[in-house]
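Lecture notes, unit on protein representations.

Consider one protein chain, 214 amino acids long.
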Amino acid sequence: MEQFKSPLILVLIFAAALSAFLQEWVDAIIVITIVVGSAALTFVQEYRANNAIKKLQSRLTIKASVSRNGHIESIPAQEVVPGDIVILSAGSLIPADGIIFEAKDFFVNQSSLTGESFPVEKMPGVVAVDASLSERTNVAYMGTNVRSGNARVLIVNTGKSTDYGQIARRLTLRPPETEFEHGIHHLGYLLTQIMIFMVVLVFAVNILFDRSAD
């Protein structure tokens, strides 16, 4: 349905409806064909793009080493749940937010969250409740990666509940509109206003000169 929210498409639909009302069937059919063709083309392009993204994601599935029932298992990162103990080493991508309870020479690159250019050493311990992200040295964050050392982490938050997930959610609430999209919307609204003005003007002139409204 997103294809029919464009102002230009709405203008064309209105024009088709008006042509049909005036029994200009050829014009109405032509306009409806253009609208349906445009919507179908957009739908096919979006469908192919979504399929391509899904295939790429399936090939790039991130694995996590988890200790469960005394055994170490390699599972997809999205299957990690709170309470799991994740084993991290150099090169590991951290799949969720967790508390570090065991670490050795453990350095993490968390520039994606804090902007820090150098790896940060992480270790077990206690930090202040109001500590900032960069000051929480006892926490490993989803979206960061291990540069060196190894550690065991108790997972406490996953997915949208993680700090990374909350940031991503805020960024997707209102995706920025491109200049092209802004221009298209502005043009569509302008055409709509002109069309409504012309319809009202023609109708008023016909009434004023006692002509047929059609």
